[in-house]
């Protein structure tokens, strides 16, 4: 799961995004990623819903 709040400055968001992309490339075998921008998106229920939705695709 990645977390970058909507309130973060654009420069910080860009740096975080590029760093997270590099991390994802190194995580061989991980197939699902969740991105959250506020606490409601990081809740257990929201994460489960997103994971289940990707299972159906």
TrEMBL record:
Entry GO CC: actin cytoskeleton
Pfam families in the cross-refs: Cofilin_ADF (PF00241)
GO molecular function terms attached to this record: actin binding
Alphabetized UniProt keyword annotations: Actin-binding
Superkingdom of origin: Eukaryota
ADF-H domain location: 1-52
One biological process term in Gene Ontology: actin filament depolymerization
InterPro entries from the UniProt entry: ADF-H (IPR002108), ADF-H/Gelsolin-like_dom_sf (IPR029006), ADF/Cofilin (IPR017904)
Entry similarity comment: Belongs to the actin-binding proteins ADF family.
Protein name: Cofilin/actin-depolymerizing factor homolog isoform X2
Organism listed in the record: Bombus vosnesenskii
């Amino acid at each position: 799961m990645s977390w970058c709040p909507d309130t973060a400055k654009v420069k910080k968001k860009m740096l975080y995004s590029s760093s997270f992309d590099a991390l994802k490339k190194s995580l061989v075998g991980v197939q699902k990623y969740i991105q959250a921008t506020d606490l409601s998106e990081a809740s257990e229920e929201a994460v489960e819903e997103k994971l289940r939705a990707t299972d159906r695709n």
